[in-house]
Amino acid sequence: MPGLTGIIRLLPYEEIDQDLDSMLVAMRHNKGYSHGRFAYEECGLRIGWTCHPGSFAEGMPLVSQNGDTVMIFTGENFGEREPVARSTSSVSDKDSAKAAYLLKLYAELGEQFFARLNGWFAGVIIDRRSKRVTLFNDRYGMGRIYVHAGPDEFLFASEAKALLKIRPALRVIDPEKLAEYLRYNCVLGDGTLFRGISLLPKASAWSFERNISPRKRHYFDFSEWEDRPRLEDETFYGQWAETVARVVPRYAREGGEVALSSTAGLDTRLIMAGLREQIKEHPSYTFGGAWGQLFDVSTSRKTANVYHQAHEIISINEQFLRGFADYARRAVHISDGTHDAFGAHDGGIVYKNGADAPVTPCPSACS
Known about the structure:
Glutamine Phosphoribosylpyrophosphate, subunit 1, domain 1; five-stranded antiparallel beta sheet
């Protein structure tokens, strides 16, 4: 999947650039990905990234006009529109980048910048004046970053396999974490299945100042939300309805080829209602079986018809079952073991209606 990977090491070694290339190769599951790399020798940083062509994160790195600030951002930001930031260019040669306004926003807000972002993202900011590198992620940790702190280096990547590729000693399963996975279907906290590799905690902004040991801080505390006064039922519903009507369309503005995974659930019906006038720009699809019509399919088709929206059925048919083992392995591999064999329909290629041409069923999960 698109993401970033990097090495922070004050004393480079001969193969360090080849290692960065190997980390990038491990994450390029699609040859169509855009990709790039950047080095900041004064802090020992080497970073690479991949992204979908035309996506919000294309056009990295972002560089300020005076060259003092460099930003590499992966993912998306769906914050409230920032008129000043969006109308004033702050980049030297990336004016066409969709994310260019983030540099202006960072210059205006400083340390408050991270809390103003909204979405699934991760990134690195390089401040050449203070010789500081900051690694950050979103407040929920959805834009996951795997990290390894070694004696002479700090490694990070959006996928654990990038770290395992260049450091074979890390290819060891932690028995306790494996037990957690078998018991709870996930690893608890910020741990991972691999010994010596952990996840960057949610809402993190870790700073490196010419060293490999970061100054760790959180830019958001969930108690800020949890400790707010309780709303009465009627007040809550009114504010909730207003928030959904205001926020959901925001997620559809950035464009791109995005489809809605539709089921019979209230959640997807709520999203379709919230999209309103933008619904026609986002066709929907539903996974269907090979033996009769599922309730998910019939309900999704009816909902799509209400909004005069295109709707497709992706069949889990005999061809899919014959290739199930390969699809399951792909799901596990791409997800670094966080998806199991039951995610084979997400991690592989499903054949539509028995045709020979494959289609990708779930871009958010498998691309």
